[in-house]
Specification:
Chains A, B: It catalyses: N(2)-formyl-N(1)-(5-phospho-beta-D-ribosyl)glycinamide + L-glutamine + ATP + H2O = 2-formamido-N(1)-(5-O-phospho-beta-D-ribosyl)acetamidine + L-glutamate + ADP + phosphate + H(+). Chains A, B: It is an enzyme of class 6 (ligase). Chains A, B: One of its GO terms (molecular function) is phosphoribosylformylglycinamidine synthase activity. Two copies of one chain form a homodimer. Chain A is of the alpha+beta class. Chain A has one domain: Phosphoribosylformylglycinamidine synthase subunit PurS (Mth169, Chain: A, 2-Layer Sandwich). Chain A is 35% helix and 37% strand. Chain A has a three-stranded antiparallel beta sheet. The first copy, chain A, is elongated, with a radius of gyration of 16 Å. The termini of chain A are close together.
């Protein structure tokens, strides 16, 4: 079973890295970019018996390590083998 | 039009960040994790006239800035408004 976790800043939180990428794209002449958001995606292979167990573990991983609950939100998609 | 770009290391390229996350998850007792991959996801809003133009620009952005062609591969998904 695979868990695919996406972590993005919450709306309203300043994203300096995305701003820097936006400026760099503008400097390269890509002026069609009106908005940019950047996040991380983590793909985990899990040795678990059920989707329920996979979701439970993935949520606990997000809460404890993979996402900062104050500034970030996360989304979990499960991909059966 | 939105372009959603995912950038991952190519197979075989060492991913120290993913390794560190894997170790940290293990230390927190998450021992069901058998494999971990980490990448970035960039969502761009583009003021363009066609999907073709959006794909062309997104590919050029990847080749010039967003992905390291030696070590990384990227995937582009277009999301019409």
């Amino acid at each position: 079973m695979k868990a695919r976790i996406e972590v993005f800043y919450k709306a309203g939180v300043l994203d300096p890295e995305a701003k820097a990428v936006g400026r760099a794209l503008g400097a390269l002449g890509f002026d069609a970019v009106t908005e940019i958001r950047q996040g991380k995606v983590i793909e985990l292979s899990l040795a678990v018996e059920s989707e329920e167990e996979a979701r439970h573990q993935a949520e606990a991983m997000c809460e404890k390590l993979l996402a900062n609950p104050v500034m970030e939100r996360y989304r979990i998609d499960l991909i059966p083998d």
